[in-house]
């Protein structure tokens, strides 16, 4: 099982992720978090928003951008996402061990609940430290 960030989710939905990751997604072994899902959906839909994610979407050809937009409007069943009902109690317990921001807390809690690895394109020291302390495997990948 894998928990992926917004940039990696974009690569999966655009079918531009590394082949092993695409196979894992097809097998239903890939999850994202509500915040990462929201950040990517906002980047795709909010024409007034400009950031690294929206720039990554802008370079996609029209058909691929439409494919990604459709997938974000209704996340494919093969991409998992845990509910706040499951995540929040774990996130609260995590805050007793290590203070994390929302993005990192959701990712670590998701990985712990699922027994998953986290795969991200960028990992800050806060996420690296939390994963190390809590025994969650963290991989930084290029997509």
In short:
By secondary structure, the chain is an alpha/beta fold. It is built from 8 helices and 5 strands. It has helices spanning 6-13, 19-26, 34-45, 52-58, 62-73, 84-97, 102-114, 125-134; strands spanning 2-4, 30-32, 79-81, 117-120, 138-140.
General description of the model:
This protein is of the alpha/beta class and about 140 residues long. The chain has a single domain, classed as 3-Layer(aba) Sandwich (Rossmann fold), CATH 3.40.50.1010. Helices cover about 60% and strands about 10% of the residues. A five-stranded parallel sheet has the order 3-2-1-4-5. Strand 4, helix 8 and strand 5 form a beta-alpha-beta unit. Helix 6 packs across helix 7. The longest helix has 14 residues. The protein is globular, with a radius of gyration of 15 Å. The mean pLDDT is about 95.
Largest sheet: 5 strands, parallel
CATH homolog superfamily: 5'-nuclease
How many domains, in number, for the residues? 1
Gap between N and C termini, in Å? 18 Å
Share of residues in helices: 55-70%
Beta-strand content: 5-15%
